[in-house]
Amino acid sequence: MFDYLIVGAGFAGSVLAERLATRSNKKVLIIDKRPHIAGNAFDHYNEEGVLVHKYGPHIFHTNSKDVFDYLSQFTEWRSYEHRVLASVDGQLVPMPINLDTINKLYGLNLTSFELEDWFESVAEQVPVIRTSEDVVVSKVGRELYEKFFRNYTRKQWGMDPSELDKSVTSRVPTRTNRDNRYFTDTYQAMPLNGFTAMFEKMLAHPNIKIMLNTDYKEIIDVIPFKEMIFTGPVDEYFDYKFGKLPYRSLDFKHETLNTETFLPTAVVNYPNEHAYTRITEFKYLTGQKHPKTSVVYEYPQADGDPYYPVPRPENAELYNKYKKLADQTPNVHFVGRLATYKYYNMDQVVAQALTLYKKLTEKTEEDKAIAEIEKIVIKGKSLNGSAIKISSKNGNH
Ligand SMILES: Cc1cc2nc3c(=O)[nH]c(=O)nc-3n(C[C@H](O)[C@H](O)[C@H](O)COP(=O)(O)OP(=O)(O)OC[C@H]3O[C@@H](n4cnc5c(N)ncnc54)[C@H](O)[C@@H]3O)c2cc1C
């Protein structure tokens, strides 16, 4: 009998498998319907020998020392700061928009101070910020909104920014200096030998058994376990009883080219031209030296694997219905981006999984304490015939 069946071998499932096996000596079966571990962070050497990310570029960045220290047990790191250019008006300019973006685009020679005033002069007054369009035009004005955001968002989400909740672009990271890093987190690094190698190390414990190419429904009635950790889609778990939670998907077109480098930087965004949103060249991310290079084009689409939850109020309402059910389901713990219907970065999922592990162990400690009290009570009862009532905070056992 397994102590835990963990559905999904991405960050959420693998962190919990590792903690439960190594720290709590639990027997864990981790399964995934895909033919590999690492979930969406899966990387592999393609047929030409170039290390690529199957599900699009994954760049690790976090402000959490705890998360960074935790993952550092399973990998060495390669320091990496991500940089992105956007193709606008026939030029490649830094993204997020910074001093160089504006000077290059408009042929200006502004200083940082002057750029602040410039942004203020172009920003639109929006009394109440409700949509993604409001967020952007109130910060950088309509022209930059049209050049950088409007069409990109329409491609990415299949909707105009005016129809999308403000949370989609809740923050427009514009800079008045020349900082052209995409992220500003304290820790920015890539696993030295790739994500999959890091996951292999996490899961290499005799208490952990891995089963791939397996949907949990195939084994749930066959393999005995005490508790389940579910990191798949929450609506799927409940047989879509309230309807399907909407997601935006992507089609990844991978290509290997007979040239050492292809792009001037890791990622080029195409807000206006082409059906794809961006091209990524993996060697920038991985630091690999190779005479050929591999790139991926991302084509947003409505159908396919669930990647981005669509942040609209009616979807949040639908998710809340599933969450209520999930909260009432004994011995099943829902964690990760699909089970909580939220776009999380990798570090956030690691933090979420570590928090759940803490909760589970606190529960175990509480169980032990209750068992101890029960022993005393039973002893007491056999001595004087009266019993004390004991209640558990976790009503499910
Ligand atoms: C295109 C793209 C780019 C991204 N880039 C970044 C980035 O640069 N930096 C960053 O920090 N984050 C990035 N992310 C987010 C990152 O992918 C997630 O934070 C991370 O994958 C979440 O881990 P998870 O374990 O919750 O989910 P997943 O990695 O999706 O793992 C869930 C697993 O459950 C399995 N599963 C589902 N249903 C079943 C079932 N019925 N039976 C068995 N198994 C099942 C799935 O096959 C999957 O492997 C990106 C996401 C996307 C889509």
Automatic annotation (TrEMBL):
Listed EC numbers: 5.4.99.9
Annotated ranges, domain UDP-galactopyranose mutase C-terminal: 147-343
Molecular function GO terms recorded: flavin adenine dinucleotide binding; UDP-galactopyranose mutase activity
UniProt gene name: glf
The keyword Flavoprotein is annotated on this UniProt entry: yes
Organism: Adhaeribacter swui
Listed name of the protein: UDP-galactopyranose mutase
Gene3D superfamilies: NAD(P)-binding Rossmann-like Domain
EC category: isomerase
Biological classification of the source: Bacteria, Pseudomonadati, Bacteroidota, Cytophagia, Cytophagales
Keywords: FAD, Flavoprotein, Isomerase
Needed cofactors: FAD
GO annotation, cellular component aspect: cytosol
UniProt similarity note: Belongs to the UDP-galactopyranose/dTDP-fucopyranose mutase family.
Keyword Flavoprotein: yes
